[in-house]
Amino acid sequence: MRGVEVRGIDIDAPWLAEGSLLVNGVDVVPLVEAELNRRFPGRELRQAEDPEGLRAAWAALERAWAAAVERAIAMPAGTVDASVGGEWSFAQTLRHLAFAADVWLGQAVLRLPQPCHPLGQPHAEYAMGGFDTSIFAAGRPGLAEILDLRAERQAMVREFLATVTPQTLAEPRRHPWSAETEVSVLRCLHVIIGEEWEHLRFALRDLMTIDTARTGG
C-alpha cells in the first residue's frame, strides 16, 4: 500500500509473528511481539523447547488465566456469557481451551480412546476432520461446571509436564486433523500453549470492550 491514510486502523492478527508487517519500511512485528510479552509476563516462553521451560510457560499461563477468571467473575452478571462482535464469550473460550487440551494432549499425545469432554467447545476444523461432534453438549452449561472442567484440563497439562523428558518431547505423534501427518510431542504442546495465550488476549480484549460499553469510559 502506498500513500494510504492509516488513521484509526485496528489490526488483530493472531499469526502476526509468523510474517512481517512493514510500516514506512520498518518491520513492526518485533515491536508488537515485545509489547505483548511485556503485557503478558511469561508469553515469551511460549516456544520453550525443554521440560523446564515448558513447565515455567504453563505456570505463567495458569497465573494469567486465574487473574482473568477473577476479573470476569467480578464483572456484572451475564458478562461471562456475553459475545463481542460474534466472537466466543468468556465461558465459551474456557470450554474451547479444554477442548484444545483434549485434542492436542489427550488425543494426539496420550492417545486416549475418548479424549473429548462433552462440555468442550470445538471449532469448525473438528467437524471438517470427520470427527463426531454429536458428543458435545448443546445449550449453555453453568460457569461452575465449566470452571471444574477447566481446572481438570489445566491439571492434566501440568501433570504431564511435571514428568516429561526431552526424549518424550521428540517423539512423533499423529496430527489430530491429518492422519497422514506426524508432529512431535513438543509441537503439540506448543499448539496448546499458543492457543492459551492468544485466547487470553482475545478474552481480555472483549472484557475491556464490555466494561467500556457499560461504564461509557
UniProtKB/TrEMBL annotation:
InterPro entries of this UniProt entry?
DinB-like, DinB/YfiT-like
- Domain (DinB-like): residue spans on this chain: 60-202
Q: What is the superkingdom listed in this entry's lineage?
A: Bacteria
Q: Where is the signal peptide?
A: none
Q: Protein name, please? A: DinB family protein
Which organism was this protein described from?
A: Verrucosispora sioxanthis
- Phylogenetic lineage: Bacteria, Bacillati, Actinomycetota, Actinomycetes, Micromonosporales
